[in-house]
Amino acid sequence: MSAGTARVIASKDGAAVAQTALEVRDVSLVFNTAEGKRPILDRISFDVFDGEILCLVGPSGCGKTTILRLLAGLLQPSGGEVLFEKSRVTGPSRERAIVFQDYTNALLPWRTVAGNVALSLEARHIPKDQHPGITAELLTKMGLQHAAQQYPNQLSGGMQQRVQIARCLAQQPKILLMDEPFGALDAMTRQALQDELLQLAAEQRMTVVFITHDLEEAIYLGDRVFVLASNPGRVVEKIDVDLPRPRSQLETREDRRFLAHRHHLFGLLQGH
Amino acid sequence: MRRLLRASVFPVLVILLWEITSRTGLLQFEYLSRPSDILLAGYSALRDGSILLATWQTFEAALFGLLLAVLVGILTGTMLGLSATTEKVVGPTIEALRPIPAVAFIPLSLLLFGFGLPMEGMVVAYACVWPILIATIGAVRGIEPRLLEVARALELPFAARLWKIILPAALSRINVGIRVAVGFALVVAVTVEIIVNPRGLGYSLILAQQSLRVDLMYAQLLWLCIVGYAINAALRTVKMAQPAIHVGGRL
Question: Which residue among A36, A154, A197, B29 is buried most deeply as judged by most CB within 10 Å?
């Protein structure tokens, strides 16, 4: 099944036809704090379909990062379960790559750009003599071919985030989990990276779960957008984004449907 | 060059004054040799190789103890830094052992290993392990948690996590502990030799003193001063070279 058809099916007919990559079943999470139990997430359920870009948008403190960590397996739910390809997620897996927001902390400062990407290859036990070829190809794809021998702190924020994405791609994941990946970048860089991500996802038929607090970013990128509310975190709205692909920063954002979605969801976000 | 010139004004003056006063008989003190005699004694000790051999013996023991301390300190420190539970269980014992002066272990080490390199090395190791251990615990605990999550997300096995993430991330802070330990190593090695171990620079010193070769004793003191200065200078270059190795900075 190609990415294109998966997207069409997912947006027209939901769970009935498309393959599910991840299933979230009645997931709750309670943190034990000094003041007692604090519910973070309350019985959340949703599916992530194969090949779709699912955007989760919500105010800060609504638990969207927590949801991503649960999907990744970095956290275990207090109740309910997360299924990846029908089996229960009990810990992290290379098949689910995570792109962290704080790229500066996530990159190994003592390794070059190429060395950072090669970390994933080492984890996959790829023979060393194949590293340069694979690394060069990924860096070229991310527009980093000239930075291969530089260290992360010599690069701009946008370039550093590209390195992290390249490292995630090098682990050949089935799904890309992105935690506000462009949140710390300036507007121009952010738009460039949004388009690069869309192109990448289309080429590789990648399933993407994308966390953001930027409503327009969510609509621009997503096949579907979920709106979350806080205290405790829960999904209050799910919409299908019926905007044609490939999307364009100018036309898509001026499209009537884009504005209608924005209008609808903006109200929801304000209300909570 | 200018700085060197200015720095040498004072010692040169003192030495000149010392030489003149002792030659003219103004300064009369049995256990104060003339600078010229000290230099001659040092020269002959260098020529017959005795002082170089002693230096090597001291170095050998100091290095052996230091390496042992580095190994044990980094290994234990990493374990304690990674696991809060282990730290709670073992930490108090460490805090209890740490204040014991290393030289207090000379009698025990002598019983266990007899005279020679191992007993001296063990005492040096005991003195050197603490700064390395403490630095390692702090370094490992201070590792950016995100890096550990990256390692988990990549499903790196423990050995790879240690080798590729934890140790490189902690290295620059561990180095601080090692540099402190290097200073201890020489001091403790010489002390052990003076007190009991019949080898190395410390033993040569006490031997010169006991055979009333005061000039030789001063020559050896001077030599120790030169050696210590050289080690410090070498350490400073290592320290300066470091930012170049870790261009990543932010460690």
Answer: A197
Give the Å distances, CA to CA, from A64 to A214, A222, A234, A253, B155.
Answer: 12, 16, 9, 24, 23
Q: Around Cβ A172, how many Cβ atoms within 10 Å?
A: 15
Q: How many domains, in total, are found in chain B?
A: 1
Considering only CB atoms, A74 lies closest to which of B152, B171, B246, namely B152
Kindly determine whether residue B248 and residue A108, on different chains, have CB atoms separated by under 8 Å: yes
| Closest CA–CA distance from residue A190 to any residue of chain B (Å) | 22
Is 0.85 exceeded by the ipTM? yes
Q: Kindly list the residues from chain B whose CB atom is less than 8 angstroms away from the CB atom of residue A153.
A: 247-250
Looking at domain A3-95+173-271, its CATH class is: alpha beta
Q: What is the CATH number of the domain that holds B169?
A: 1.10.3720.10
pLDDT tens for chain A, residues 1 to 272: 334 444 444 444 444 457 899 999 999 999 888 888 888 998 999 999 999 999 999 988 888 999 999 999 999 999 999 999 999 999 999 999 999 999 999 999 999 999 999 999 999 999 999 999 999 999 999 999 999 999 999 999 999 999 999 999 999 999 999 999 999 899 999 999 999 999 999 998 899 999 999 999 999 999 999 999 988 888 999 999 999 999 999 999 999 999 999 999 998 887 64
Considering the entire predicted model, what is its pTM?
0.81
CB neighbours of residue A31 within 10 Å: 12
